[in-house]
Structures are given as C-alpha cells and as structure tokens.
Write a structure and sequence with these properties.
homodimer; alpha+beta; Nuclear Transport Factor 2, Chain: A; 7-stranded mixed β-sheet; 4 helices; about 35% helix; about 35% strand; globular
Amino acid sequence: MRYRRHAMALIGAVLLSQPSLAGPETGAEAAIRAADLAWLRAYQAMDLKKSVDDVCAADCEVLAPNAPRAIGRAAIRDSFKSAFALPDMKIEWHPDEVHVAKSGEIGYSSGPYRMTWRDPKGKLVTDRGKYATIWRLEHGQWKVTLDMFNTDLPGQ
Amino acid sequence: MRYRRHAMALIGAVLLSQPSLAGPETGAEAAIRAADLAWLRAYQAMDLKKSVDDVCAADCEVLAPNAPRAIGRAAIRDSFKSAFALPDMKIEWHPDEVHVAKSGEIGYSSGPYRMTWRDPKGKLVTDRGKYATIWRLEHGQWKVTLDMFNTDLPGQ
C-alpha cells in the first residue's frame, strides 16, 4: 500500500512536470489562488459585503444545484443568505487547480468542497463535492464572473 | 403580460448593448459556440470517439453531479457511457454565453440543458439545469478542459 502510494506520487510528479499539463504557477495564477482563498474566508465569516459586493462582478453568475442560475449581486446575495441561514453551517473548499489565459485577464480555479450543517431535526448533514470558479481581472482586481458546484455524493 | 415581456426584452437589449457586459461576438467566440454545438451533436449521436477522444483535452475533467470528478478521457468515456445507456435518453443544451480571453486560447461557454430518459419503471423523467464548459485552443482546435453541470430542479 505504501509502495503503491509512492508510485502514484511519482506518476503525479511526472504528470505535473509536463509543461502542457501544468507548468510552474504564474503570478496571475497565484493571485487567483489568493483571491479564491480570500473569498473562502469571507464566505466562512458569512460576510455578504465581502463575499458578494467586493468579489462578484456586476454580471456574476452563481450556478448552484437545485436552483435557477443566480445572475447579478442581488440574486447571489439571496443565494448566499440561504446558505448562511443553515444551522451550524461550516464550509471548506480548496483551489487545487488554477489556470489563467496568457493575456492574464481570464482564469479559473477548481477543487473540492466540504460543507456541514444541521437539518431541521438537528442531525448533522455533510455534503462533499467540487466547484469551478471563473475569474476576470477588473481594474487590477480578480472578480468572480461564474461560480458553479455540485455534490460527489450519490443521488437520493 | 405581453407588455411586461416586451419591457424585459428591452431591458435585455440595453444590457446586451453595454460593451462591458457583452460586446459583439469575436471570431474565437463564434468558434467556441460552433465547437459547443458540434459537441452536442456528437453527444446526441452517442458517439464516444467524437464526444470524448476528438473534443476532450487529454487532461480534461468532467464534474458531473453525484459522482467524483472524472479526470482524463478513459474516466469521461465511462461517465458518458452511463448517460448513453439510459433508456430513451435525449438531451439538448445551448451555449447562451461564450467568452474568450484576449489572448484567444482559453474561453468558456454556458447555458441551459434539458435531458429526458425512462426510469426503471418505464416512466419518462425530465431534468433541466445549466452547464459551464471551459475550452482551450490546442493546435488550432478548441478542446474541452473542464465541463460541469447541475440541475435547476428542487432537491428530493
């Protein structure tokens, strides 16, 4: 098992060393990674101004499961408010991947998320899934232009 | 009602005429739109070669609901095979939005989808939702590098 893990790590290292698949992180990629993690902290703090107004572009779209596309900050604020209202809501996500166009004004981050909350009976519910966020540079600041996520868990 | 619709169309036209939100479609945007629609036709024809090998980048990722991230063509082939195996499966999607970076090698398309199939009891099931696809230009051809979708319907 330990050997197999080691072999997988080696294969991973070889794949990552292929420039066509993933080169060294650029400054713009590091900036998107930082913006993604700052967004997580604002979301965890349930700060609507910092998680919507400060980071979402005016025409930003959030594509959440079990809901129509939320377009614009007012709709996104409503969507986030519902999540923030879940009892004991806790969330983590991580930008495992970041890519930016050569022109440096459009990029995306993607990775796993984990969210827990209490259902109406007080039982702790855990959801695990993945997300992709598309970012656009506006006046030197990375803004979210599209965000989407879905669960890894089997359907009911 | 007719008046309201007309007003909404006018508001839409004004929004679309704002260059900061959506300028005239560029050649690269038209190319991604065409690639997106060609992908739909290959998927509708349940052609694994044309819908996976010919259009998905080697490191392509499909982020489908209720499943872990499918990475690479073999995993995506398995994911598509499951969808193609659904009895009487029919699917439509439409790239309502297309954006491309100024450098012209990374872009994305997004829009609604509608999928129907028969459940094990033979009952017709309809799902409606939205998708986002990230495209990368490789040797002059637009390839899918990340594709994600989720349902608009309420959760069970």
